[in-house]
Amino acid sequence: MNALVLAGPYDKIVGPSLAYHALLPIFLVLGAALLGVLAEAFVPQELRFPVQFGIAAAGIIAAFCDIVALRGAKVLTAGGAIAVDGVGLFVQGSILILAFLSLLLVAERSVDVVSPIVARASVVPGSPRDAALATSERVQTEVFPLLSFAVGGMLVFSVSNNLLLMFVALEVLSLPLYLMAGLARRRRLLSQEAAVKYFLLGAFASAFFLYGLALLYGYANSVDLGSIRAASQNSGSSDVLLYAGFGLLLVGLLFKAGIAPFHSWTPDVYQGSPTSVTAFMASCTKVAAFGAILRVIYVGFEPTKWDWRPILWAVAITSMVVGAVLGLTQTDVKRILAYSSIAHAGFILVGVNALSADGLSGTMFYLLTYGFSTIAAFGIVTLVRSGDGEATHLSQWSGLAKKSPVVATVFTILLMSMAGIPLTAGFVGKFYVFRAGYHDAGALVVIALVASAITAFFYLRVVVLMFFADPPADGPTVAIPGWSTTVAITAATFATVLLGIVPQLVLDWASSAATLVR
Amino acid sequence: MSNNYALVGLILVPLVGSAVTFSVPKAQATLAKGLALFFSLVTLIYVVILGFAFDTGPHAKNFQFNCSWRWIRSFGAHVAFGVDGIALVLVLMAVILVPAVILASWNSFDTRRDAEEGGSKPRNVSVYLGLILLLEFFMIGVFTATDVFLFYVFFEAMLVPMYFIIGSFGGPRRQYAAMKFFLYSLAGGLLMLASVIGLYVTSGRSSFAFSDLVGSVPDGTTQKLLFLGFFIAFAIKAPLVPFHTWLPDAGAEAPAGGAALLVGVLDKVGTFGFLRYCLPLFPGASRYFAPTILILSVIGILYAAFLAIGQRDMKRLVAYTSVAHFGFIGIGIFAFTTQGGSGAVLYMVNHGLSTGALFLVVGLLIARGKSRLVSDYGGTAKVTPILGGLFLITGLSALALPGMSTFVSEFLVLVGTFTRHKGLAVLATTGIILAALYVLILYQRTMQGTVLEKVKKFKDVNVRETLAVAPLLVLIVFLGVYPKPVLDIINPAIKTTLGYVHQNDPAPKIAPVAGGAR
């Protein structure tokens, strides 16, 4: 230490101490991502797929094991920029579980030609080379390190206690997603459109976030959530900066979570992206974004809640209503799931807005259950195929139960869970967040329940088509999935049912994890 | 409190039966039928034994065969079962109907010739029977649950098997009917969920056990709002006018067996809910809303009876008669007299048996004529005398002819109502005349008159079909002559229930005799 001090005046800037043990999960996943980049360069072509999959899976599994070991930790590290606490760890754990399941979907090799991921995303759609790519057996495996990077960003995003770090994490998680959205093997034009749309709108949202961050810095003289909280309590400066900053910050966060009125990218991007990537986006990104929203609101802005809560109530109602009503008019399964995710985001906001320990744990539980059913549902979507890829138009799904009773039954269970029918995880999650929300906003809960009745309509429409309609003559086939997709769908469906019947264990975890350090 | 396992055993029998029946391959239809019948008969015998073991003595407890385990600790939910007299007789009625339904629809899905309506394809009977047994499991569960959360779970989950029974096995417009049925019930159910959550929060007991919640909601606006949530759900289920519009569609499109269970048992859950949950949990609100509900009930009696007279479709006609009958049950409950209450519960049992039988008989007729329209039949009794006889007796029980059990309950309800609300009782009595009209016109048009050409080819009912319906009719006549065993079970429970709303029977007014007493 002495030697350092003697070295000169420049050493006045001392790096913050890092609690490496608490950051290990993040390092593991990002390490796996970096290793993946190296593997991409040095591992021979034919070995790349298994090696890349192995690296990504190992990173996620190791990180998850570490999080289990870290449970109960309450660490504020990196100069207060990172808070590893109950909520952070639960959200990180959820992200890792869901990311692993999504990884299994991405690693599917038997449904489409070699892989549902295109080998060269930059080829002009519609050109002869593009047509050749659809059936080409070339595989590119960059998607695995990209996924690992995104997961790493999400892990940081959900524990950042400092808005600047949160912004960096937001970019780290978003950039790989923009790329991954453009990697679909079939329907290249839609996929590229999705990528561009997601990128442009995402960049706008990031700009909003950054602007809000700047205003908040002007208000509190700090980008730490704790300092912003303290400043808002003994306010000397103008509240305009605080609320304008908070509002702009929220726009960025609500965008990432796909909450109306910042939802317009969701249906297009969900539809255009490779379905396995959509599953990843719809589950993990949502969990991470809500993790960040929870932290920002509960840590940074809880003291001023009576000033901004009505606005979030309005946002929640908008999201529920937009998701439910626009979902009614959709004819594409992936778009239906996208609008359903918008409605669900509204339901989750009811829990977020409770601003209580129940609200925290309810939100986290809901996110987990929603993630499971979403991943399994998109997994099923990858299986229903016609000649030119996935058959996602509703009319193609009619009579599916006659072709494959198992697939139709599993999909029905998942839809029932999303509709909140008892004995599924979705019901327990809804019950939990609505109970938390009821204390302060009973009317909001009633609106939410009416909205869930509307969403039930379009879930049921799919069930009606699958079971009660006759299959079209040239209907799609149900592909036999490879082991990885089978494992992912089975595990996620099993979790959906299990969390609906015996949820107590996970509820205990969620409620004991409802702690935030600041 | 030591746990009594009797009801757990009971509820498991149909569940196991359902799983076993589902697993029978399509080719072995006879095996599936035999197994389903076996399990339904075991359940029936089981309940009969429980009925004999049920203590009706003066010191008997209200709830018997109680058991309770914690289920979801975080929510205060229990797996708790127990029956009072009301629940016991309704369970008994349900388990009597199930074997009758299985027998009556024995061949309904085997061949095109046996199908109820022309053009419907043969369907997988093991799925149908599995669904019927699954429905039986939920029906027993919903009547025996003594935890509000558990009740809600059964209440909602019950929709799913019924939805598939209507949607997969129903008539030409089955998709529409199944959807309408599910959405109506779900919308009501979700409003009830809002009240369930509100009940939990308002009571502050951190428990959903029925015994913990009774008397926990203070009188006032909150109680009224919570009451409305439960009431609307039950009113849709019952169905009371103006919440009845789904029943004619669902009743008409469901296969006859499904319709018998739908109207016979599922709808009783609504009226059962009034007695079990609305009155004890929200006594003040029940008294406050009683006049409105009484008026709606009387409107229902008259309105539905007029509509029934005008129907051309036999199943719709029967469905409308049920709406009228539910009006009688409604006034019986909300008159708050012991005769009215006991009459209403007896009415529920009788109505289940008689309308169940009526649907089955109409189903037998439709299976012969392949049409639901009244105008397609004529003079049938001359060709098929036994079917004609069965039709006549069930019809007479539906119009509450003295000597039939339905007369006893209708009389009790009217007497019970008259002591408190004379005008309404008088209006309701005219419903009896209308009932005679719609039943006798139906009988006359289909069974008497000139024998139509196509009717001449009808075969009379066989032994199996007679066995399905005859026991129900024997029971109706038996209870019409000697209703005491059932009333003995019902009466104590009704007294307890009315005790919650603090209502005693109005004392008879004795006019002073001129000259005074000697």
Summarize the entry for a quick read:
The complex is a heterodimer of chains A (518) and B (518). By secondary structure, chain A is an all-alpha fold.
Q: Helix and strand layout, with pairings?
A:
The complex is a heterodimer of chains A (518) and B (518).
Chain A: H1 2-6, H2 20-42, H3 45-70, E1 75-77, E2 82-84, H4 86-106, H5 128-135, H6 143-159, H7 163-181, H8 188-220, H9 225-233, H10 239-257, H11 265-272, H12 275-300, H13 305-328, H14 333-352, H15 357-381, E3 384-386, E4 389-390, H16 400-403, H17 405-419, H18 425-438, H19 442-468, E5 477-478, H20 483-501, H21 504-512
Antiparallel strand pairs in A: 1-2, 3-4, 3-5
Helix pairs in contact in A: 2-3, 2-6, 3-4, 3-6, 4-6, 4-12, 4-15, 4-20, 6-7, 6-12, 7-8, 7-12, 8-9, 8-10, 8-11, 10-12, 11-12, 11-14, 12-14, 12-15, 13-14, 13-19, 14-15, 14-18, 14-19, 15-17, 15-18, 15-20, 15-21, 17-19, 17-20, 18-19, 18-20
Chain B: H1 6-23, H2 29-53, E1 64-72, E2 77-83, H3 85-104, H4 125-144, H5 148-157, H6 159-169, H7 174-203, H8 210-213, H9 221-237, H10 246-253, H11 256-281, H12 283-309, H13 314-334, H14 338-369, H15 380-383, H16 385-398, H17 405-418, H18 422-447, H19 463-481, H20 484-500
Antiparallel strand pairs in B: 1-2
Helix pairs in contact in B: 1-2, 1-4, 2-3, 2-4, 3-4, 3-11, 3-14, 3-19, 3-20, 4-5, 4-6, 4-11, 5-7, 6-7, 7-9, 7-10, 9-11, 9-12, 10-11, 10-13, 11-12, 11-13, 11-14, 11-20, 12-13, 12-18, 13-14, 13-17, 13-18, 14-16, 14-17, 14-19, 14-20, 16-18, 16-19, 17-18, 17-19
